[in-house]
Amino acid sequence: ELGMFTLDPGYVNTAACRSAITYLDGEQGVLMHRGYPIEQLAEHSSYLEVCYLLLNGELPTQQEMETFKDNLNRRSLVHEHLDRFYTGYRYDAHPMSIMVGVTGALSSYYHEAMDIQDPEDRLLTAHRVIAKMPILAAHCYKYAMGHPFVHPRYELTYVENLLNMIFAVPHRPYQPSPVAIRALDQLLILHADHEQNASTSTVRLAGSAEANPFACISAGIATLWGRAHGGANEAVIHMLNEIGDPKNIDQYIAKAKDKDDPFRLMGFGHRVYKNYDPRAKIIRKACHDLLNEMDTVNQPMFETAMRLEEIALQDEYFIERKLYPNVDFYSGIILQALGIPMSMFTVLFAVGRSAGWISQWLEMMEDADFRIGRPRQLYTGSQQRDYVPIDKRG
Ligand code: SDX
């Protein structure tokens, strides 16, 4: 018995770690954070409240939430010298390449002064990561646009600040719509944590060596960038743009099924979900509602996406392999409807996931039994043999 779930011994032996933060059942399509179903959190909670839940294990009281917000606000400044880091990147650098660098560079501002053996320093680090990620992310967009950096304002909420830091410019007023704020808040909730995915496992492994936590988060960002992982949301839009008219769908389905063709249907399949990704269901409805409310031009792309989903879900190849749409299939359409450029999609995934990364880092560091991670291998190389001098070879 591990907590409220009985895991068969085989699973326990192969489990990478113990965690009480997220429960995921790939066969049933179940996702819960600290016991709360993702469907309820997406409908009733806020990203900041989910951050508190992931970090502390319980939903906050009104007072605890106010204190948490205040703590994050007080950590929401980034040293001016870090702004200079951006100018070292090529003018057209992919924002994820910048995020890897500047997040890693934060470790230089919090190294000697931080004692990861001290519980208070660890929690302070967690607050710093959650508070600073939106700023680093927004600065990436501003650097790409050649616009002045915008800094967070105390009176704005977390998501209002994120949108304001991305889109506000000195020469005209900017006020994000409540629809956009809610859509982005929900998207961050759905990306907050997801058990031991590749990027979270990277953060845990780096953290188990007692590396600087900001450097660990940077390693997580590097991992998330891969198109098989968080980079898929950007790849889905490229794919939908390439498909264009729904009449072209069949030829792309055929490509995806062709063993000799490296093309994969982006936004489909999952290492764990062999049922519908519960987040995809939520995002699909949010996407539909948003496009209707914003009456945006993405409607044709959304229609193509829904038609592609409908055809794939009826195709034997996908049915046999239990390939369903995942969280990335619709998230890109929402982000595009919000005016977020494609190059920033995975950056926003990283902002959302930073709460999960740092919560799992904190959980590991607080586990008295934790030791350095050391995955093993199945050796497939040569049996033992003796050295042969070069003049005796060949
Ligand atoms: C995320 O781990 C997480 O939790 C990740 C994530 C999170 O929140 O952190 O959920 C976020 O990364 C979601 C996944 C985003 N990636 C994509 O959408 C990229 C496209 N998907 C594929 O690359 C693939 O499905 C993976 C990488 C997601 C999973 O790869 P697996 O584990 O190899 O897939 P599988 O074992 O289920 O594959 C079974 C079969 C194979 O064919 P056969 O060898 O049986 O003939 O299905 C095929 C695969 O080749 N297959 C696909 C496919 N995905 C799997 N064929 C066509 N298109 C696809 N998308």
UniProtKB/TrEMBL annotation:
Name of this chain's protein: Citrate synthase
User: Cross-referenced Pfam families, in alphabetical order?
Assistant: Citrate_synt (PF00285)
- Stored InterPro entries: Citrate_synth-like_lrg_a-sub, Citrate_synth-like_sm_a-sub, Citrate_synthase, Citrate_synthase_AS, Citrate_synthase_bac-typ, Citrate_synthase_sf, Citrate_synthase_typ-I
The record lists the membrane-crossing segments as: 329-351
Kindly state which reaction or reactions the protein catalyses. Answer: oxaloacetate + acetyl-CoA + H2O = citrate + CoA + H(+)
**Pathway as given in its UniProt record:** Carbohydrate metabolism; tricarboxylic acid cycle; isocitrate from oxaloacetate: step 1/2
Of which family is this protein a member?
Answer: Belongs to the citrate synthase family.
GO cellular component terms, alphabetically, are: cytoplasm
Active site at 270, 328
Q: Which CDD domains match?
A: EcCS_like
Biological source species:
Methylohalomonas lacus
Q: Which GO terms describe its biological process?
A: tricarboxylic acid cycle
Which SUPFAM superfamilies does the record cross-reference, listed alphabetically?
Citrate synthase (SSF48256)
Keywords assigned by UniProt, alphabetized: Acyltransferase, Membrane, Transferase, Transmembrane, Transmembrane helix, Tricarboxylic acid cycle
Query: Which GO molecular function terms does the record list?
Result: citrate synthase activity
